[in-house]
Amino acid sequence: MKNMKRKTFSLVLTLALLVTMLSGYVPGAKVQAAGVRYEAEDAYISGAEVASTESGYSGTGYLDGLKDTGSYIEFTVNAATAGRYKLDLGFCAKYGYKEETVTVNGSQSFNAILDENAAFEQKTIGTVKLAAGENKIRITRCWGWVLIDYLEISLADDLNIPTNIPDTLINPNATAATQKLMTYLTSIYGKNILSGQFAYTTRYTEIDTIYNKTGKYPAVIGLDFSDYSPSRVALGCNPGQDTEKAIDWWNNGGLVTFCWHWQSPIGASTDDSKKWGGFYTANTTYDLSVAMADHTSQEYTTLIRDIDAIAVQLKKLQDAGVPILWRPLHEASGGWFWWGAKGAGPYIELWKLMYDRLTNYHGLNNLIWVWNGQSADWYPGDEYVDIIGEDIYASKQDYSSQANGFLKALAYTSTPKIITLSENGVLIDPDQLMEDKIPWSWNNTWGGEFVVPYVGSYDYTETYTSLDMLKKYYTHEYVLTRDELPASLFTNDPVVTPTPVVTPTPV
Questions:
Q1: CATH number of 10-155
Q2: Which residues form the signal peptide (predicted)?
């Protein structure tokens, strides 16, 4: 069913902004005009219906659901001036925690986080850049099953993101090379972004494809310890020399980040279609809460066995002088991986256990700990986190700065921490990074379809990032590539940082 009525209140918004400007507004000042409300029942609705059976809503009704794939609601709003605006949503998530996709004028996109509640309430879901005049703000089903009452827009405050970050590592015994890397990362934070690319296979097809198209290698390579998981090795998997490849990459002047798609220690499905995906909650019966509650259980002893197996590889890297941007237990709060399936409590215990086992038991001092839990409730504490990572898979060819994802990560702790785009599908336009002053530390574009049409191919695909944007990114003055890393990072000499680019003043 489609409700074709549209209400924009353009005159009201224009007057509200005019009054604000006449009362002393100047560009760059912290100003927030009174919000202008757009009722859901007056928006364009596709694949959902307007209802009025719940109590406490505004206007004459609300959107019921976003229950069907592809369903959406689109608000037409008018901005008197171009700029960054705050979005507040009136909603009820009585069916549980939800995430829904917000798209602005068909390009900027992010997921609105809607916590479970029992009645309609208002929440700021993000800030967006609007053009002067008419703008389209669409909310599309991602998880679905949420009631939407209204959308309010108002001028957003300046972001004022801190970029002066201490270079102190959580491990006081960190190796000199590891400390030097952290010092370097803090020195360029907000001045440059490091280019990064995940390599799906040790053939480096994504890396070579990027080089063939741009003449540049990424500064950071992303690798995975998945195949070193003991239960995966037991299935006949032969680890693909990721450790040796990491050493080679470092020796050629590049930085290394590792994640670990950890095949569950026990309980993985034996079904041929699932057994290689034993890191997914749906493909294993492994129960982390049992392991954390009973240290004599098989769940716990095999957990320790697996951590110790990965420690062997990390020790090889330490012996070779390679510091690692270490990102284990990623995307936990989503619940799709077994380490997040039993809630925040067991996960945080596991994070602390892993830190203690690798650092204090195995003496691994070459790790910079990148926490990537994706929710404040899952944050293990400042003393266990060096860097915060956020994974964002934007809509195809959405090159916006992903400011909302950054601000979400910024709110996980009040302690200044470097924040990085630890996984992405689409590259960000570096001009937008500079304009919005969003200081992602590095990006890590995922492999396969985000770069090449299929795993193992050396052809480039423009499905997610156009070739023009790829070339722009890898040759932009704000983006550092492998050849632009200071040679002193890889020697015993003091680190020399590059001269930062001049950030243009937004107009």
A1: 2.60.120.260
A2: 1-28
